[in-house]
């Protein structure tokens, strides 16, 4: 019995020594889009970041969401800065198309939040257009309070849910 145990233990140790672990892609934020592959250095051991022109590259370099104050659809200075980076990225990749989804926190009626989400998405779209992004490349949708990022009933979560999320819908690699 001891002999079998020693053989099994030795085989397990050999297999463990020969096993390699696959490299995981780098994901920068939680998004609804699947992660893209990352490039690696020639040694294959160090990721160098998302491949340019991919959805992950957009999220990593520009950011995919802007946040709004309670019951507001006006852009904050931080939101305008994020949208400036998005416009720069979109102007560098003119084939990319996007959808901007307006979202709200759980407070208020469904109808009110759908209208507020639409105003938020349209505010983001209008700012991108003012920065040179063609309106034909942008779609908007409002999810109101139906697709929260955070599900807790707290001010921290409500603030996270008051946003407009920009999603790449076409024209990128990977």
From TrEMBL:
Region of interest (Disordered), ranges: 19-54
Signal sequence, renumbered to the chain: 1-19
Main location, first listed in the record: membrane
Subcellular location: Cell outer membrane
Keyword Cell cycle attributed: yes
Compositionally biased intervals (Low complexity): 19-43
Residues covered by the OmpA-like domain: 55-172
Mode of membrane association: Lipid-anchor
TM region(s), chain numbering: none
Keyword Ligase among UniProt keywords: no
PANTHER family referenced in this protein's UniProt entry, alphabetically: LIPOPROTEIN YIAD-RELATED, STATOR ELEMENT OF FLAGELLAR MOTOR COMPLEX
Role of this protein: Part of the Tol-Pal system, which plays a role in outer membrane invagination during cell division and is important for maintaining outer membrane integrity.
Similarity comment: Belongs to the Pal lipoprotein family.
Name recorded for this polypeptide: Peptidoglycan-associated lipoprotein
């Amino acid at each position: 019995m001891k002999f079998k145990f020693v053989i099994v233990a030795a085989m397990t140790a050999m297999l463990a020594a020969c096993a390699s672990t696959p490299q995981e892609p780098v994901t920068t934020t939680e998004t609804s889009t699947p992660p893209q592959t990352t490039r690696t250095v020639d040694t294959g051991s160090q990721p160098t970041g998302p491949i340019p022109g991919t959805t992950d590259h957009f999220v990593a370099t520009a950011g995919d969401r802007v946040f709004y104050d309670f019951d507001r659809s006006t852009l904050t200075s931080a939101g305008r800065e994020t949208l400036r980076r998005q416009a720069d990225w979109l102007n560098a990749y003119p084939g990319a198309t996007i959808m901007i989804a307006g979202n709200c926190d759980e407070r208020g009626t469904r109808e009110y939040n759908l209208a507020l989400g639409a105003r938020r998405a349209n505010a983001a779209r209008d700012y991108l257009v003012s920065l040179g992004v063609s309106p034909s490349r942008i779609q908007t949708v409002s999810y109101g309070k139906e697709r929260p990022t955070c599900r807790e009933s707290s001010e921290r979560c409500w603030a996270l849910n008051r946003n407009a999320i920009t999603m790449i819908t076409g024209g990128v690699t990977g």
